[in-house]
Amino acid sequence: MSLDLPPFRPRFPWWGADLQTLASRLRPAPTAATSACSERLSFRLQDGDTLLAELDHPALVQPGRRPLVLLIHGLTGSAESLYIASQARLLLGRGHRVLRLNLRGAGPSRAVCRGQYYAGRSQDFRELMSLLPAALTQDGVVAVGYSLGGAMLLKYLGEEGAAAPLVAAASVSAPIDLSATCRNMMRPRNWLYHRYILGEMKHEATGEGAALSAAERSSILQAETIWHYDDAFIAPRHGFAGAEDYYARCRPVQFMPGIRVPTLVLASLDDPWIPGALYSGYDWAGNPALRPLLTRRGGHVGFHGLGGDPPWSDRAVATFIGSATGVATMTATARPQG
């Protein structure tokens, strides 16, 4: 896919896939400008849990109608994650209102949720869309999901098909095959990532507000791998026979043929967490609604390139949104960039 951007080229000091990936946690937070004000919104779900979100209003009103942009974080992230804040800042500067969502049991939503998000919990998006005030959705809604949040979004889009109440969507570094991604994460070369993420998952799942039986809490704390966590906690709690049944039934790649909303699918083929072959081997020509943007380098939710901040992926997503909503133009191809 060709955007009005130069091809992605990594910049110092973020050389290599691992430094690109770590940069999303290590680099300084973006300066807070371009937002006139922010307010916290709460969305009470039918089962009693509440999703909390931050609604940011642009400091400057731009001409033309601009859709609300819903940003969805990844595993163990929140509305305050650096990559969410960075994308929000760019979109606010282009005149969009931005709704930064905390998934069920994530960030400040943890204290007001008994349950926990997981990659297949697309029903939360469905319910959230029905709860958004008309004043926010009158100019349309665009959703952007990162990593696990992107996987959830792609599943939802495929389930909804043409009925999805979105004008456009984008995923960044989404694990489109959950089993393959889990196996890759547990490789020896990824042991530091795996250990860190598993620890964060345990902390999140057992935090204040979580409704857990003694057996569930024990299973979470004793899990030695992400696979064990999913097999002993996520799968039985949500009606799956085990981890592999959960992965098979919720993997986004099986829902992607049903997507009918224009959707940017952005990924790096050197992502240390997600096998690049999942993306390079997919039949993109089979669904014209999918707009693949594959780079050879960039890591996992990285894309820190020449030209400085914001990350190249932020600019790609913002340009795609502009095109899909009639604000800008873009031309699609399927060639890897960078």
Low-pLDDT residue spans: 328-335
Write the CATH fold name of the largest domain: Rossmann fold
Question: For this structure, what is the CATH class of the largest domain?
Answer: Alpha Beta
The N- to C-terminal Cα distance equals: 12 Å
CATH H-level homologous superfamily name of the largest domain: Alpha/Beta hydrolase fold, catalytic domain
What is the general shape?
Answer: globular
Number of domains: 2
Helix and strand string, N-terminal first?
HEEEHEHHEHEHHHHHEHEH
Number of helices: 12
Helix content: 25-40%
Alpha-beta content class = alpha/beta
Count of extended strands: 8
Q: Describe the strand arrangement of the main beta sheet, using strand numbers.
A: 1-2-4-3-5-6-7-8
CATH architecture group name of the largest domain: 3-Layer(aba) Sandwich
CA gyration radius, whole angstroms: 19 Å
What would the average pLDDT be, to the nearest integer?
A: 92
Largest sheet: 8 strands, mixed
Could you describe the 3D structure shown?
By secondary structure, the chain is α/β, with parallel strands linked by helices. The chain has two domains: 16-177 and 256-324, Rossmann fold; 191-250, no CATH class. Helices cover 35% and strands 15% of the residues. It has twelve helices and eight strands. The chain has helices spanning 16-26, 82-93, 123-131, 134-137, 148-160, 178-185, 191-205, 214-222, 226-237, 243-250, 277-280, 312-324, and strands at 35-44, 50-58, 68-72, 98-101, 141-146, 168-172, 263-268, 290-295. An eight-stranded mixed sheet has the order 1-2-4-3-5-6-7-8. The termini are close together. Residues 328-335 have low confidence and may be disordered.
